[in-house]
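Work through what follows:
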Amino acid sequence: MSRSKAVAIIPARGGSKGVPRKNLQRVGGVPLVVRAIRAAADADGIDLVVVSTDDEEIAAVSTAAGARVVRRPAELAADTSTSESAVLHALDELARSGDDFEVVAFLQATSPFIPSDALADAVAEVRAERADSVFAAHETYGFLWREGGARDAEAINHEAAFRPRRQDREPHFLETGAFYVFSAEGFRESRHRFFGRTRIAQVPEWTAIEIDDEHQLRIARSLASLHEQPLRIPVAAVVTDFDGVHTDDTAIIDADGRERVRVSREDGMGVSLLRRAGVPMLILSTEMNGVVRARAEKLRVPVLHGIDDKETALRAWASGNGIELDSIAYLGNDVNDLPAMRIVGWPVAVANAHPLVIEAARVVLRREGGRGAVRELIERVLPG
């Protein structure tokens, strides 16, 4: 008996009021829609990942991330359009092309921390017909209230006069919105994500954030820097800023206006190891200063300095060297690094970077600029 096929569908329209271009906003250095695509692709049992969108940029980003794109008509991409309508449309379009699926996983890109293992378990539950629909939720022992008449508080899931200990209470489960898995046949009949035998897929509470405003986006970025710190950074090239990265961001100026900076010898050894491994490196600096070029020459690394537009310069260097932007690690420390960090696959921040840089980073190093940060990055790039 053949195994039933499962498709992951990610609705991702271009419009958003709370956070402009929300589905393309980056968390942990990765666009939200790409995070959802990767979570689905990493889940055992998913045969195809589809993004439903009305937006050209989202379509291009999704295709590059390995998803199939279904173009959604404008009438299904309005503020009042339901996610169910997008999923049904995607299923119809797939069927028209000869692709029929028995199990559907509906993922929301606005949930940046979708656990692939829990998603895989949910797919297995529906595929084995132990459930008709499964949804992500986390356990909670919270005391819930609502405002009653005249704004008086009214207890919902407990008796106000009785406060049992946590261990004496029954837990409840809060829906996270991250994913819903269901049988395609039942979904077509009910036209809703909950039907038949419904089960809960328990996920960690910290993954439950759903992004609807800028504040939640900043929280998600902070959570990513805490929970997503890979030891290995698999890239083909390394690009770094200079001040605050190779130096501790201080300078000594003599009476003639000449600058002196403090650098780390262990950073120099790290660069030597990277060079011997044949991994291309570039120093990209806004400063037009002889000390930058002198240090680059000492390290035997190419340098572009006096650069105001780092994004354009980095794109040109990568193209000229035949290096994909997704395979570059860019190490920065301050806000002028943000445009370059946003276009690479691995934006990296030194430990003492500006808060906005830390929010934009996929990896935050343990060491500070001028104190071994470059060496730490290189050791995580080189295998072994």
In short: The chain has two domains: 6-141+171-213, 237-381. Residues 83-96 form the longest helix (14 residues). The domain at 6-141+171-213 is CATH 3.90.550.10 (Spore Coat Polysaccharide Biosynthesis Protein SpsA; Chain A). The chain has a mean pLDDT of 93.
